[in-house]
Amino acid sequence: MSERLLVVDDEPNMLRLLKTVITDKTDYEVVTTNNSLEVPKLLQDEHFDLVITDLKMPLVDGMDVIEITKKTDPNIPIIIITAYGTIETAEEAVQKGAYDFITKPFRRETILITIKRALEWKKMQGELAALKTPAV
C-alpha cells in the first residue's frame, strides 16, 4: 500500500503543481485541499502518513496545521512550504513539530527527497517504538 499525503495550500495552482510533482515520480497517494479549515476533519476521517502545508494561509495557517496535526497524530511528519521563509519562522515551525521547512520556489528534487526522508524517519520512529515496547 502506498503512503498517503495531505497537501494544504490556499493557492489551487500550487496544489496542482505539488500533486503533479509528487505523483509523477512516485506512487504516493496525494489528497489536496485549499481550505485549511478542512484539515481537522480530514485528519480525523482519513489516514495520512505525511502532511505538507503552506505557511501563510487565511484563517488557519501552517503553524496551526502543525498543532492540529500533532494533536490528531503526533507521529505524522509535517513539511512546511513557504515563500516567506526566515530562520526564525523555520525554528518556530520545527519547535512546534515540523519535520522540515522548504522555501518557494523549490526544486522538484528537493521536495521529493524531503518527502522520502520524512517517511523514512516516520518508519524508523515506528520501529523504535516497537523495540521499546516490552514483550509480554
Question: What attributes does this structure have?
Answer:
single chain; 136 residues; alpha/beta; Rossmann fold; five-stranded parallel sheet; 5 strands
Can you give a write-up of this model?
This protein has helices at 12-25, 39-45, 62-72, 87-96, 108-132, and strands at residues 4-8, 29-33, 50-54, 78-82, 100-103. It is an alpha/beta fold.
- Give the spatial strand order of the biggest sheet: 2-1-3-4-5
Q: How would you describe the oligomerization state of the chains in this entry?
A: single chain
Helical amount among residues, as a percent range?
40-55%
The CATH topology is given as: Rossmann fold
The Rg value, from CA coordinates, equals 15 Å
Number of strands: 5
Task: Estimate the global geometry from the Cα principal axes.
Answer: globular
CATH superfamily: Response regulator
Number of separate structural domains: 1
CATH class: Alpha Beta
Count of alpha/pi helices: 5
Structural class: alpha/beta
Chain-wise SSE layout:
Layout: E1 4-8, H1 12-25, E2 29-33, H2 39-45, E3 50-54, H3 62-72, E4 78-82, H4 87-96, E5 100-103, H5 108-132
Parallel strand pairs: 1-2, 1-3, 3-4, 4-5
Helix pairs in contact: 2-3
Task: Offer a quick outline of the entry.
With about 140 residues, this protein is an alpha/beta fold.
